[in-house]
């Protein structure tokens, strides 16, 4: 679920960041509305809203899993957009001008100049988003989706040993996040380029 | 008379209410070096950006090898590829090595094969005396070296002309010399160059003509010995007096 949310959010995040930096006024307004909506309300409310209201509004019936995944993608995309925007803007205008002077098209400039730098710059803040989204998947409990917190809850109820069960669940979250962070650190070091470190 | 590479007619540029260029006629022939001097705010950089097709003019026409570039549905990117541009700030791609920076244009824009683009890039780096630094990233190079990579990046495209926008304005004096030396080399090799600079030594040695710009116009132009020693307009006289002799 975390991976689905992150992957969908990744695509949405990049697209909306590009739209916000290089797009038309209308695009910017739409993107700003989208981002404000998802960053301005709690994830739990968004989950319930999408699960219950979309079928009511559109007649479209979807299961908890799909509703949960879509909400996570949209939510994560809104946050990731901010990180990508910062990273894209960190590739300074003078480099865009230089690419133009070489005769590069907008697409060539994005592909060979902007994205290779932005994707490197975005790794550290993106790691934070990964962790925060991973932890907030526990909110999926409200839709009855069987993720770690929900499963722990039922086991705790069956065994009457909440202390051990939740301690164990916490340990799993902890190990998972520690390992993931190591992996991201490793990737960051692997693709690091001297002088490209930028704080956004 | 040689072949005219780049020319313009009645060139004007307005930003909001402000006319930065107020009507410029200009041409440069193959193999020539022309130097533009003038006070800041006179429109030199804007003029250069327009001639490099980095911004469109408000009025007037620009001709590249006789063709009206905005007139007849030409592919602007293909013309930009033939006009090299060296910026005041080196403006290197920070995720690429010196070699990567120089190679990118030939590879992506001119669609050369990788080894061909690499050969081209190494040749250009050699011309600016940086072949031993080809695997360094911009952040690992001095300002003067970065600026020379910028020159090599323009050279590797085999341009018909290179425009320089105050390439040494942000450099220390010693770093200025290494860049100026490379530029003199290019001028002597017959590279067509249009240079905005206040390095009068460079102008004296290699320029065919100096243009003095003020207030969005070319006020005066002529061969270096004439214009530098004996400027006709009072504004050029005043400017040169301050530039050479302090205030």
Verbal overview:
- Chain A is mainly alpha-helical and 200 residues long.
- Chain A has a single domain, classed as Orthogonal Bundle (MetI-like fold), CATH 1.10.3720.10.
- Helices cover 80% and strands 0% of the residues of chain A.
- Chain A contains nine helices and no strands.
- In chain A, helix 1 packs across helix 7 (123-136), helix 3 crosses helix 4 and helix 8 runs antiparallel to helix 9.
- The longest helix of chain A has 30 residues, at 162-191.
- Chain A is flat, with a radius of gyration of 20 Å.
- Chain A starts with a helix and ends in a 9-residue tail after the last helix.
- The model of chain A has no long low-confidence stretch (mean pLDDT 85).
- Chain B is an alpha/beta fold and 247 residues long.
- Chain B has helices spanning 44-51, 76-80, 98-108, 114-127, 143-155, 173-188, 200-206, 224-229, 234-245, and strands spanning 4-15, 18-29, 33-37, 59-64, 67-68, 83-86, 161-165, 193-196, 209-214, 217-222.
- A six-stranded mixed beta sheet of chain B has the order 6-7-8-3-9-10, sandwiched between helices.
- In chain B, strand 9 (209-214) and strand 10 form a beta hairpin.
- In chain B, helix 3 packs parallel to helix 5, helix 4 crosses helix 5 (143-155) and helix 5 packs parallel to helix 6 (173-188).
- The longest helix of chain B is centred in the C-terminal third of the chain and has 16 residues, at 173-188.
- The radius of gyration of chain B is 18 Å and the shape is globular.
- Chain B starts with a strand and ends with a helix.
- The model of chain B has no long low-confidence stretch (mean pLDDT 93).
- Chain A binds chain B through residues 92, 94-95, 97-105, 108, 112-113, 116-117, 120, 193-196, and chain B through 52, 54, 77-85, 87, 89, 91-95, 104-105, 108-109, 137-140, 150, 153-154, 157.
